[in-house]
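Researcher: Go.
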Amino acid sequence: MGTEDAIKAEIEEMGRLTQEQEDILYNISLKQDELGRESTNLLMEKLKGSPIYEPMIEREYLTYDVFNHGGKHEIACLYVTLKGLRYCIMFADELAARRKVDAAGAPRQAS
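Model: Structure:
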């Protein structure tokens, strides 16, 4: 489990996630916060080897379970880890400002 100090040290060493990765992580974390431990589903073929998702999994910001209900496609159920949530909290002001809608779902006012 990553503490804030450990996350800061990791960021100094490896850098922050890309803006696209941060936006994905933040959006998944908001969904989990709103709906409980509700996963975000993605086809495994889109997850494995992805330059967007793999680094977040390797750095333990995201985790996933895999299921297949008899179909030919495996589904990855993505979850933000506690470390990922701490990352989002650390940069929440910046991440929230990039969203097109506010916390209530209303379009952001141009400033």
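Model: The CA atoms of residues 47 and 53 lie 6 Å apart.
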